[in-house]
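[stage:ingest] chain + small molecule (flavin-adenine dinucleotide)
[stage:ingest] validated
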Amino acid sequence: MPSNQKTLAVLGAGISGLSAAYRLHKLCPDATLHVWDQQERTGGVLTTLYQNGYQIEQSADNFITTVPHLVSLCRELGIAEELVSTTPRFRRTYVVRKKHLYLLPDGFLMMAPSKMYPLAITPVLSPLGKLRAALEYFLPPSRSDDDETMKSFVTRRLGREVFERLVEPLVSGVYAADMNKLSLMATLPRFREMERQHGSLIRAMRRQMRVNKQTKSQSQESGARYSMFVTLRGGLSRVTDTLAANLPDHSVQLNKRAEKLELFTDESGGVKWRITDQNGFAESYDAVISALPSYEAARLLLPTYQRLGELLSGIEHSGTAIVTLAFDASQVKKRLCGMGFVVPKIENSPILAGSFSSMKYEHRAPAGKQLIRIFAGGARSPEMADMPDKQLLSLIKQELRPLLNIDGEPELEVVAHWQRTMPQYHLGHLERIREVNAITAKISNLALAGNFLDGVGIPVCSLSGQNAAEKIAERIRSCF
Ligand SMILES: Cc1cc2nc3c(=O)[nH]c(=O)nc-3n(C[C@H](O)[C@H](O)[C@H](O)COP(=O)(O)OP(=O)(O)OC[C@H]3O[C@@H](n4cnc5c(N)ncnc54)[C@H](O)[C@@H]3O)c2cc1C
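[stage:predict] done
[stage:export] tokens:
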């Protein structure tokens, strides 16, 4: 290797790490690049499985396009023609109330209603709960600039019932978090902005609807903004597989766990990183991007940068289990017209949320079949992320059977456990990340990427990888 050739390492081959490596290779094509991952495959949590004609997403199953980065990246990778939107006629969500499914009021998106009539007639809220929600229109905005928990914000604006029966299950289904701790400003700051700008969430949502000139089907959406979500026809693993395929030969090093990370000075006086794997084999690098979960980055960095390690190790994570079940459509007797359902904590169910996977994206199941994905665990019931498959399946099927009026057993059952995969953006997270960024900005040969920084969604993770690559490429050009 020529002595001036730079050696760069990316730790972690999930969407964050592979996006970092892809960009780094574009920006520094002459550098030697290694991507380390402890698993035997790339993709991190993103895993698309094919079984008996079904396409099963084991973790993330689609992504939002309001952060345009990932769609642009798909274009750059030549896979944009595979992007598919959610099935328009099913863009609604159910919520469970006393063991029955009800459609969420049309236009109720994550935290606020855009239409009052559907809210007024929903059987999910009591007359008092509806009255309290309608009062939101007249409530003055908070004068405080302080962050607050999701629970505090929603109960302050829309009342306890809307929080418990609508918002808590919707937000839990995405963040698998404890609403008593989840930071509004670190997760859904646009709702605080709506309050600030328009004085009321209802007023802001209605104005947005008028300005955006929504189609009839868009104005009927409920739960998430489904028209803004896409996936890839070949599954989300297509993105990580294609990123990996665009890296130089032999750069991705699998079954290689970073056990130790140390700074040292080489013979020419250059400061480098030495990374040691699980077999005691060490390699040295001019710069490192960590795209590991924050607790792993913390473990590796603590001996060298104590404060950084402490900040990273303070980020809690929750785990989830995903149970995928396939049925013949004739076995599911309940007539469904939505993308899935969410379950409020007050229902005391083992299920956090469910997704009608093959209604959301029709290519995921053979004709006449129904693919259903169930989320369990999260901060609400952490024990479920580790529950043995047999026990978990029995519990979930028992709960699902009366809810969807299911006849008989599924023809396919797949379980995925995701321990410590969802960083919890608790109150104080933004300050913590600000300090993390301030420390890493001063370290020229280190950058961080991952889902603990700016958001858990895959477009934001990918962007964090790209930003980390740009920082390192710039430092290589100017400092080394
Ligand atoms: C069940 C579930 C459902 C989700 N649904 C959605 C969704 O629908 N839409 C969406 O946008 N987002 C969703 N998310 C979030 C999103 O998928 C993740 O935030 C994102 O994929 C994380 O990517 P990452 O590369 O940062 O981390 P990871 O994918 O966790 O990758 C980190 C990598 O680091 C490796 N590693 C760890 N320690 C070491 C070590 N010491 N040495 C070497 N390698 C190591 C791991 O093996 C792993 O491959 C979901 C997440 C989960 C868990």
